[in-house]
Every structure is written in C-alpha cells, then in structure tokens.
Amino acid sequence: MSVESKKPQEACCSKLKLFLVSLAFMYFAKAFGGAYMKSSITQIERRFDIPSSLIGVIDGSFEMGNLLVIAFVSYFGAKLHRPRLIGIGCLVMATGSFIVALPHFLQGPYKYETSMSHNTEANSTESILPCLSNHNLTEKDETPDIAAIQACEKAVGSSMWIYVFLGNMLRGIGETPSMPLGVSYLDDFSRQENTPFYLACIYTTGMLGPMVGFMLGSYLAKTYVDIGFVDLDSITITYKDSRWVGAWWLGFIVNGTVILLSSIPFFFLPKSLPKQGEEEEGGKKSTELASGPEQQSFLPDETQDGEDKEKIVTFKEMVKDFVPSLKRLFRNSIYTMIILTNLVAVNGFVGMITFKPKFMEQIYGQAASRANFLIGIMNLPAVALGFITGGFILKRFKLGVVGAARVSISASLGAFCMLSLQGFFHCDNAEVAGLTVAYQGYPQVSYHHSTLLSPCNMGCSCSMKHWDPVCAYNGMTYASPCLAGCQISTGMGKAMVFHNCTCIDTSTSPAANMSAVLGQCPRRTECDDKFKIYMALSVLGAFISACGGTPGYIVLLRSIQPDLKSLALGMQTLIVRTLGGIPPPIYFGALIDRTCLKWGTKQCGGRGACRLYDSNAFRMTFLGLVTGLYFLTNVLWGILYVKIIKRQKKLALRNQAKDNKVEGNTQNNGHANISISTNKEEDNKESSI
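^ Solute carrier organic anion transporter family member, sequence as received from the core. Prediction below:
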C-alpha cells in the first residue's frame, strides 16, 4: 500500500519539477531578450538616428504591453489553465522578437554620417583635399528642401523604429503571464519552506539570460549592421566610432527562436497539482519560513475561513468579485507600502540599467561592445550569486517575514553606499577641439557649436553639423578633417591619414607631426585605472543589492492572502511596471539629451543621435538621479520595517488575548464570542501581513 501511495506523489513531484525547469528556462529566455534589448539601445538609437528620449519610449513599450493585459491575466488567469497561458504568452513573445528585427529587412543599407566623400576606390597614392571639399555644405545645410527631405525620409524608412516599438510591446504582452501565474502556481503546489529556494533557483537561472544577452550584444556590436550585404573594406569607421551600428537585428531572431522552444513544455502540464509533500507534513512542525502558521498569524480571520473551500465559479461571478477583491487587497497597508518601495527602487534600477552602457561609453571612453561585455561577464554573475546568497540565508537561518525584511533593508543600504562611492571615480571630458577644449593657441571655449570655427579653419568653409572625427598625433580630437584644417589625405578606407592640418598646434614641439587619423582619440591611461575602480564598486554593489531580492519577494508573498496571491502579484507587476518601467527610460533619456554637446545629422537632414556628451554634466545627471532614487528607497524600507514590527507586536498581543479568552470560554462563553467578533471587525478594517 505504501508503494501505491508513493506513485502519485512521485508523479506529482516530477510534474512540479518539470514546471520548475520549464519556468526557469522561460525566465532565461525572456531575460535574455530583455537584456539584449538593453544592450542594443545604443545601436538602435544610431541606426534610426533618434534621441535618447525617444529610445526611452521604445524601451518602455515593453512595459506598456504589460500594462494592457496584466490585471486581467493575473486575476482571470489564476482561475484558468495557468501553464497553458504561460505557453501562449511565450508564442506571443517570440512573435514580438521577430517583428523587432523586421525593419532591417525593409530598410536600405545603413549610410553613416560623414563630412566628405572618402575615396575608397582610388589607390593609396592619390589625395583628396578635405579643407577644400566642403565649400557647398554650409549653404546646403542652411536651405533645406522640405519636399526633398520628405521624399528622402520615405526612401530610407526613417520611421521604421515604429516596428521596434510595436514588436517590443508585443514582447511585453507575451511576458505578462510568466510572473504572476508562474510564481503563484509554484508557490501553491510546493512546500512553503521550499519556495524561497525554488524562487532563488528560477531567478538565478534567469540571470544567465542577461549574461547571454549582454555577451551576444557585445559580440554583435562589433559586427557591422549590413554584414553580408556590403563590402566591409569600404567602411571607413570602426566599432569604437560613435556612428558605428552593429548587427542589432540578428540577436532578436536568435532570441525569438529560443523563446519559441521554451513554450513547448507548458502545453503538456496539468492545470493543478497535489500539494508537494502534503502527506508528510501532517505531524511535522513547520519552519518559521513556512507560510502556514506564520502567514495565518499575519492574515485576518475572514480570509482563512474559506481558504480551502474550492468551488467552480462562472466567468460572471469572477467579474463580479474583481472589484471587491481589489478593495480587500489594497486595504492591506503592508502590501501597499511594499508596492511604493518597489516602485521607487525599480525607477532607479531601470534608469540605471538602460543607460549604463552609454554611461560607461561617455564617461570612461569604453566602446559599446566592451561595455556590454563587462556588464555580462562581471555585473550579472554577481547578481546571480546575490540571489543565491539571499535565498540561502533565508533557508539556512529559517528567517520569517521580519528576518527577511532585515536582510532586504541591509542589502539596500549596502548597495546605496557602493553607488554613492562611484561618483568619486570618473574621467574628465574627452578633448575635442571647439567643444570641450579650445583650439590650441586660441581662447577657451564655451559649450556651443559656433566655437567649432577658429581662425585656423576659417578659410575652409567647413560644415559644423557633421561629425566625422579625426585624432591628431597630439592627442586632440577634431570634429572633422575639415575643422582640423587638413589640406591633403593619403590612403583609403580605415587607413586614411590626413596631413598638413593647420589647427594642430606644433608650438610646444616643432618636430611634432601635423597629421591626423580617422576616429576619436582614446582616453588617457589614468582613466583606465579609475574605470577599474568603478567596475569593482559596481560589481560589489550589484551583489549586495541582489542579496535582498529573494528576501524582499518573500516579504511580499507572506503579506497577502492566499486567495489573492495571483491578483496581488499581478497588481504589483502592473503598478511597478507602469510607473517604474515606462517613465524612467523616458525622463532619464530626456535629461541625458540636455547634456549633449554635438548632435549628429540625419541622412535626410535634421538632428540625429547625439555623438558627444559633456561627460561631467552626464555623470552628475545620471548618478544624481540613480543615487537620489536609491536614497528614497532606503527611507521607504525603514518605514516599511517599522510598520512590520508594529503589526507583528499587535498581532502577537491579539493572539495571546484570544488564547486567554478561549481558556475562559467555559466560564463565560458569551463574553468570549463578543470579544472575538470585535477582533474580526478590527481585522476587516485593516488587512495586514
């Protein structure tokens, strides 16, 4: 008989493990796509010649897709076939990824901005005259033909970014069921003391996705966007150039295929499972982390009475019960405070991760590909290790709600300290003549495009709108060969060299070379040392912050009634992603745009993507926003912790009073009933953990 009883239990456990593995792989696939989108932000911005504020809107379209359906999926999905809904969501996500890549096949080849026609067909002995080849550009820039611009924009597909917007929104819609339905399904049918460990496993596996996403983003950022369609020898820029666009579209095709594969197992899982280990837990005392005894003591009586009474309800009844369920949920003051704290924290995190590669590129002179590589190989493993550590601490020390809250607030404070220190290790502005420093031998500049002109290049009639940087042998960058006053050039392609550049100062060293090569000059050696310290602080901060991830999630799970779990997780996702996922890329991007020193020019005219930022203003804007939001998060965590402690003490006294009244029930039954009824009314007034 014991053998027969073990068979269904083993089958149940195997299905639960299949769901756990499937959910972990799906989290990997969706995190892979999300991280790859973040790593491709710079490439998409350059490909479509759009400002950071608009790229923020495109990035936020994922959360907009979530917003459209999250409330309904969370509430109605909990009463339907959860695994199957997750599988359907994966199919929608895959479709969205393919749509994001679609513009590459609808657009023509990428034509990067240049101030002159580089002679790639002539042999290396022939020369062109940069200083004399731009006479007609100024007039052309000042008198644009509106009709010609509109025809040009239609031909080059300048509005193709809309496909990226819509595809990313579709990805957000498809991702919706995974968190509320997946986590609630796992929590419903697993041992409660195992939930933190399972969540840690899922999130740790999911963290491999961003690692792969950023690594692939790093590799493809070095691969030219039109690889296979153009002669790479004719390209005069390198992957370190701010005009370079990598093969961003290829990663979305790979991600769509992976998500498609991850959807398959969910269509073969049952709607529900027996509770894991329910036969063994009858006579055993639960750990402190188990939601049974602990959560019952933190939840109002009215929610427990009908907790195990399952019945089939109609769609009409579900709709009718939706608004009352929302009222019950938001009367929970602890839950509301958790939402507010998470909202502020996510604002800081989303803004930081969206523009972190750009920050590393502009402040420390790192190429976009190397920035993505370092995030993938250093920051993300630290985050994964942090998730495991947080889950292990909870399980090892059997911490409850209060203990989990202590771990979370400690991690939040530690991460804030690491973030604050990062601001002290930064590099100076890149030396660009006429933008960040004066032309050597001429007065100091203010940050305005008119200072690009100088007596040394005044006779060249240079365009001030184009960005085609050259690096002089004195370490100074010039916005174009013409603005450097270069008279002749030799070579072809990337090997082109410009000579007799009148703006290159040779007064300090008469024997110095008056030549320049294509591309922006690298940063100084001391900048690399500061960047290493910055990365060390960034990695340590990522680890400490992630240690509080799993405990914070446990505080959320244990603060809500079991029958409202899916709805609570869904509403948390809805609110946090609506106000924490959509606005940050937009307002971060808009404020970062204000620090731009040199805007690029679109193929058809008009302002394109930013080519050079004032690094000091960029740093103060970026780190100021992130640090301020993390500081507010710590303040809210402190308030939340005080509320949890007060509520725990209040409930402990209430339970003690109930026990005393039950003992005196035989002496005065009527008074006991009245007192208990009063307590129920108090519970109904304020739902709590």
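The chain has three domains: 13-114+157-273, 320-428+524-662, 449-522.
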